[in-house]
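Researcher: We're teaching a course module on how sequence relates to structure. For the next exercise, students receive a sequence and then see the predicted structure as tokens, so they can try to spot secondary structure elements on their own. Here is the exercise chain.
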Amino acid sequence: MDTDELTQSVWDISEDEFPDDSPLGEQAEFLLRYAILAPSSHNSQPWRFAVRDDAIEISYDETRWLEVADQNKRELFISIGCALENLCIAAEHFDIGYEITYHTDKDDDLVSTVTLDSDSEPSFSRPPELFNELTERYTSHQLFDDQALPRRTREQFHRVLEEDDVTLYLIYEPEQKRSIGELQADADEAQMDDPAYRKELGYWVGIGALGSSWLMARIGQAFVSHFDFGEREGRKNSKLIEHAPVIALLATQGDTPAVRVKTGQVFERLALLASVEDVAVHPMSQILERPEMRTKLATRAGTGEELPQHLFRLGYVEEERTHTPRWPLEVVSSTER
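Model: And here is the predicted structure for the students to work with:
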């Protein structure tokens, strides 16, 4: 992995450059410029794309799998789903139909195939305003303002859920948020108590994946790798949860790779809609990275038999939108014609 290739320039895309009169394969390559802007755990970007005529194969890159934090690859498949959703939104914007085939119940690294068809229409149409947010969406780590989300915004969030097997829970009740905040603190302390977890996190900090300068990334890597600051991190993150106007949780009946990919699609759609509404988003994965705490989260969030898949904060904050760097498309894709 050549970390020197991480760049901010991939965020600068002009839709006017779309190759209207070119074959589908060339159009597919342009659509992937939006796919790689998707969020991913630790900004690991664990996706690989192969363009084969009118089809795009999406696989995962095992070298970017968080083996310690994400032992069952839940976050890896959610990250792939986010990239897939970006691809679908871009295709719809440029009036390209598509069909998705999920391969994630197999033993190899092929996750899904998106077959493009300029003469067909997708079975589900996303809100068109989501496209402009592909290059604007960002993640906030700040304390959110004490401002409730309007009912209209909450209703919109529920309306954009396409997948019947992914349920959105919006949690507002203070005592419930406090309870989840306590669980978050326990998860942070448990994670940071593990030297292997700190080493893995330090690696991603050190290569600059989280957006720091080279010097600050190296300093951050040394600090994260060698010091257990779980108690401090737990206090900070539990406060972020307790003071957020809304805690959102995506949950599912099943727990297969395909379900996790669809969870990622739903999350990215919600994150883009939040961006339209100037609502900040912050995924928080530590609780779900601890199997025993994932069960406790289900109880405290009231999901019944549904399994928690993705937890995130929603709220308002005044801050400048900043983007984390990405590997350029040529690093993560190949073309066969």
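Model: If you want an answer key for the exercise: The radius of gyration is 19 Å. The chain has two domains: 3-138+323-336, 151-193+228-315.
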